[in-house]
Protein backbone atom coordinates (compact mmCIF):
# COMPACT_ATOMS: atom_id res chain seq x y z
CA UNK A 1 0.00 0.00 0.00
CA UNK A 2 1.34 3.43 -0.88
CA UNK A 3 1.49 6.35 1.42
CA UNK A 4 -1.12 8.13 -0.64
CA UNK A 5 -3.64 5.26 -0.47
CA UNK A 6 -2.95 4.88 3.28
CA UNK A 7 -3.60 8.57 3.75
CA UNK A 8 -6.86 8.35 1.77
CA UNK A 9 -7.94 5.32 3.78
CA UNK A 10 -7.16 7.08 7.07
CA UNK A 11 -9.21 10.08 5.93
CA UNK A 12 -12.17 7.88 5.02
CA UNK A 13 -11.98 6.07 8.38
CA UNK A 14 -11.78 9.41 10.22
CA UNK A 15 -14.77 10.89 8.37
CA UNK A 16 -16.78 7.70 8.88
CA UNK A 17 -15.95 7.70 12.60
CA UNK A 18 -16.91 11.37 13.01
CA UNK A 19 -20.21 10.81 11.18
CA UNK A 20 -20.98 7.71 13.24
CA UNK A 21 -20.22 9.45 16.52
CA UNK A 22 -22.26 12.47 15.46
CA UNK A 23 -25.21 10.23 14.62
CA UNK A 24 -24.92 8.39 17.94
CA UNK A 25 -24.81 11.69 19.78
CA UNK A 26 -27.95 12.85 17.99
CA UNK A 27 -29.75 9.59 18.77
CA UNK A 28 -28.69 9.78 22.43
CA UNK A 29 -29.86 13.37 22.71
CA UNK A 30 -33.29 12.65 21.27
CA UNK A 31 -33.81 9.24 22.90
CA UNK A 32 -33.35 10.48 26.47
CA UNK A 33 -36.19 11.55 28.77
CA UNK A 34 -37.86 14.72 27.58
CA UNK A 35 -38.44 17.45 30.13
CA UNK A 36 -41.89 18.96 30.23
CA UNK A 37 -42.09 22.68 29.80
CA UNK A 38 -42.84 24.75 32.89
CA UNK A 39 -46.53 25.58 33.16
CA UNK A 40 -47.54 29.22 32.95
CA UNK A 41 -48.87 31.10 35.95
CA UNK A 42 -52.21 31.22 34.15
CA UNK A 43 -52.26 27.40 33.93
CA UNK A 44 -51.56 27.13 37.66
CA UNK A 45 -54.25 29.73 38.44
CA UNK A 46 -56.74 27.58 36.50
CA UNK A 47 -56.15 24.75 39.00
CA UNK A 48 -57.85 26.88 41.66
CA UNK A 49 -60.78 27.44 39.30
CA UNK A 50 -61.09 23.66 38.92
CA UNK A 51 -61.06 23.21 42.71
CA UNK A 52 -63.71 25.92 43.13
CA UNK A 53 -65.86 24.30 40.43
CA UNK A 54 -65.54 20.96 42.25
CA UNK A 55 -66.91 22.68 45.38
CA UNK A 56 -69.97 23.76 43.38
CA UNK A 57 -70.83 20.12 42.60
CA UNK A 58 -71.53 19.48 46.29
CA UNK A 59 -69.74 16.13 45.92
CA UNK A 60 -66.97 15.68 48.54
CA UNK A 61 -65.33 12.90 46.50
CA UNK A 62 -65.04 15.14 43.44
CA UNK A 63 -63.34 17.76 45.57
CA UNK A 64 -61.06 15.12 47.16
CA UNK A 65 -60.09 13.93 43.66
CA UNK A 66 -58.24 17.23 43.26
CA UNK A 67 -55.89 16.19 46.10
CA UNK A 68 -53.03 13.69 45.99
CA UNK A 69 -53.58 10.52 48.07
CA UNK A 70 -50.91 11.71 50.52
CA UNK A 71 -52.01 15.36 50.57
CA UNK A 72 -52.16 17.45 53.73
CA UNK A 73 -55.17 19.73 54.23
CA UNK A 74 -55.22 22.38 56.94
CA UNK A 75 -58.83 23.47 56.45
CA UNK A 76 -60.45 26.84 57.00
CA UNK A 77 -63.22 25.87 59.41
CA UNK A 78 -61.82 22.85 61.24
CA UNK A 79 -59.00 22.42 63.75
CA UNK A 80 -58.29 18.87 62.52
CA UNK A 81 -55.41 18.40 60.09
CA UNK A 82 -56.41 16.03 57.28
CA UNK A 83 -53.67 13.75 55.94
CA UNK A 84 -55.38 11.16 53.74
CA UNK A 85 -58.24 10.86 51.28
CA UNK A 86 -60.80 9.59 53.82
CA UNK A 87 -60.12 12.54 56.15
CA UNK A 88 -60.27 15.02 53.25
CA UNK A 89 -63.58 13.55 52.07
CA UNK A 90 -64.87 13.75 55.65
CA UNK A 91 -63.98 17.44 55.88
CA UNK A 92 -65.78 18.26 52.64
CA UNK A 93 -68.82 16.18 53.65
CA UNK A 94 -69.26 18.64 56.52
CA UNK A 95 -68.15 21.77 54.64
CA UNK A 96 -70.02 21.46 51.33
CA UNK A 97 -73.57 21.75 52.78
CA UNK A 98 -72.62 25.43 53.32
CA UNK A 99 -72.42 25.82 49.51
CA UNK A 100 -68.96 27.44 49.55
CA UNK A 101 -67.93 29.69 46.70
CA UNK A 102 -64.37 30.96 46.78
CA UNK A 103 -63.13 34.12 45.10
CA UNK A 104 -59.49 35.10 45.01
CA UNK A 105 -58.73 38.57 46.31
CA UNK A 106 -54.96 38.46 45.98
CA UNK A 107 -52.74 35.76 44.50
CA UNK A 108 -49.04 35.03 44.15
CA UNK A 109 -48.05 32.09 41.97
CA UNK A 110 -44.57 30.63 41.93
CA UNK A 111 -43.89 27.97 39.29
CA UNK A 112 -41.02 25.96 40.77
CA UNK A 113 -40.40 23.60 37.86
CA UNK A 114 -42.30 21.57 35.28
CA UNK A 115 -43.93 19.45 37.99
CA UNK A 116 -44.51 21.74 40.96
CA UNK A 117 -45.96 25.13 41.78
CA UNK A 118 -47.27 27.15 44.71
CA UNK A 119 -50.29 29.46 44.69
CA UNK A 120 -50.67 31.61 47.81
CA UNK A 121 -52.76 34.61 48.69
CA UNK A 122 -56.11 35.66 50.06
CA UNK A 123 -59.64 34.68 49.14
CA UNK A 124 -63.18 35.29 50.25
CA UNK A 125 -65.33 32.22 50.78
CA UNK A 126 -69.06 32.85 50.66
CA UNK A 127 -70.99 30.32 52.77
CA UNK A 128 -74.76 29.84 52.84
CA UNK A 129 -76.33 28.55 56.04
CA UNK A 130 -78.22 25.38 55.01
CA UNK A 131 -81.04 26.09 57.52
CA UNK A 132 -81.62 29.81 57.11
CA UNK A 133 -80.18 30.54 53.67
CA UNK A 134 -78.26 33.45 55.20
CA UNK A 135 -74.93 34.15 53.49
CA UNK A 136 -71.71 35.13 55.18
CA UNK A 137 -68.27 35.83 53.78
CA UNK A 138 -65.19 34.31 55.39
CA UNK A 139 -62.02 36.25 54.64
CA UNK A 140 -59.15 33.79 54.54
CA UNK A 141 -55.60 33.31 53.39
CA UNK A 142 -54.52 30.24 51.47
CA UNK A 143 -51.61 28.25 50.13
CA UNK A 144 -51.93 25.50 47.54
CA UNK A 145 -48.89 23.42 46.67
CA UNK A 146 -49.38 21.51 43.45
CA UNK A 147 -47.47 18.59 41.98
CA UNK A 148 -47.89 17.01 38.60
CA UNK A 149 -48.21 13.26 39.13
CA UNK A 150 -48.73 10.83 36.28
CA UNK A 151 -49.57 13.77 34.04
CA UNK A 152 -52.22 15.22 36.39
CA UNK A 153 -51.88 18.30 38.60
CA UNK A 154 -52.89 17.54 42.20
CA UNK A 155 -52.95 19.47 45.45
CA UNK A 156 -50.30 18.05 47.81
CA UNK A 157 -50.60 20.70 50.52
CA UNK A 158 -53.50 23.07 51.13
CA UNK A 159 -53.57 25.52 53.99
CA UNK A 160 -56.51 27.83 54.50
CA UNK A 161 -57.13 29.94 57.57
CA UNK A 162 -59.39 32.78 58.59
CA UNK A 163 -57.66 36.14 58.50
CA UNK A 164 -56.41 36.83 62.03
CA UNK A 165 -57.22 40.53 61.88
CA UNK A 166 -60.84 40.31 60.73
Write up what this structure looks like.
It is a single chain. The chain is α+β, with helices and mostly antiparallel strands and 166 residues long. It has four helices and five strands. Residues 9-32 have low confidence and may be disordered.
In percent, how much strand structure appears in the residues?
35-45%
Helices and strands: which structural class? alpha+beta
The tally of strands reads 5
**Percent of residues in helical segments?**
25-40%
Biggest sheet strand line-up: 1-5-4-3-2
Count of alpha and pi helical runs: 4
| First-last Cα distance | 95 Å
Q: What profile does the largest beta sheet have?
A: 5 strands, mixed
Unreliable stretches covering 5 or more consecutive residues: 9-32
**How are helices and strands ordered from N to C?**
HHHEHEEEE
Please give the structural blueprint.
Elements: H1 3-31, H2 41-57, H3 60-64, E1 67-74, H4 85-95, E2 101-113, E3 116-128, E4 135-149, E5 152-162
Parallel strand pairs: 1-5
Antiparallel strand pairs: 2-3, 3-4, 4-5
What are its keywords?
single chain; alpha+beta; 4 helices; 36% strand
In short:
With 166 residues, the chain is of the alpha+beta class. Helices cover 37% and strands 36% of the residues.
Amino acid sequence: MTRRSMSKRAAVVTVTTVLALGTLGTVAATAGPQKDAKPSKKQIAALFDGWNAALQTGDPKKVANRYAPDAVLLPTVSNEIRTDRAEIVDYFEHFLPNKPVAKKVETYINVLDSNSAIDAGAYDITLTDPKTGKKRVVEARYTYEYEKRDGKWLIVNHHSSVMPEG
